[in-house]
Amino acid sequence: MRTLFSLLLLLMASPAFADFEPLDNIRNAAIAAVAHGEADTLLVTLDANLQMPKCGAALQANGGQRGVSEVSCAAPTAWKLYVPVKITRSQPVVVLVRSVGAGQPITADAISTEKRDSAAIVGAAIYDPALAIGRVAQRTLVAGGPLLETDLMSPRAIRRGEAVMLVVRTGGLDVRAPGKAVGDAGLNERVNVENVGSHRIVQGIVREGGEVEVQ
Predict the structure, then answer these.
(1) Partners of 115 in the beta sheet?
(2) 8 is a domain residue
(3) Whose CA is closest to 27, among 89, 81, 90, 76?
(4) C-alpha 72: how far from its chain's center?
(5) What's the Cα-to-Cα distance from 67 to each of 38, 41, 49, 81, 121, rounded to whole Å?
(6) What are phi and psi of 39, to 5 degrees?
(7) Are residues 56 and 103 in the same domain?
């Protein structure tokens, strides 16, 4: 009889008879602390065997370091748990549907828009197709990747060695002088130009008609 009584006490003290906080409560509290209704996907990492004492009130949760929620209980047994939460916020970005070679223009049939995890994109992504079409690939771009600002440049309006017209606008007057481009550049980009008369190198902004406006 004494042996049976001891066995019953042991069973009652085992986890099967203990009152633990449901994992869903911990998970929901962790999500509420960091999501703020902006996430498309939330992944909470919790050990299925986790057993925290049942809380006598609603769990408290705060967003701690990035991607971690601090979930706690004050009574009857005080405890604190740090719960990793992976947040995915997706938004449409411009993506290549076929590869584009260096120097080739981006055409409408070469791109599409897809939802991607913005946190996983390294660099400034392009979100509007109109900002990509007509621009030129700075290097070979592979299909499937999101387009970045650093991937593209404006079409070359002038090339190195080409004759240009230097223009200085001051007081309502235009002062012009012949020049020679020292590098390649697109419209509204900066370029170095040699003044043919003085052989000085100046920097200006490429304008329409082969003009370079010197500020």
Answers:
(1) 92
(2) no
(3) 81
(4) 32
(5) 14, 13, 22, 14, 17
(6) -90, 145
(7) no
pTM for the whole structure: 0.49
Q: In the structure encoding, which two tokens stand for residue 81, read together? A: 């748990």
Could you tell me the CA-to-CA distances from 134 to 108, 125, 214 in Å, in that order? 9, 17, 26
**Res 39: pLDDT:** 55
DSSP helix/strand/coil, 137: strand
Distance CA 48, CA 59 (A): 19
Q: Which of 103, 127, 153 is the last residue of a domain?
A: 153
The reply to whether 2 falls in a domain is no
Its domain, for residue 199, covers 156-213
DSSP SS3 for 3: helix
Q: Which residue among 88, 113, 138 closes a domain? A: 88
Q: Which amino acid is at 92?
A: P
Total number of domains in the chain: 3
Kindly state the average pLDDT of the residues 68-87: 89
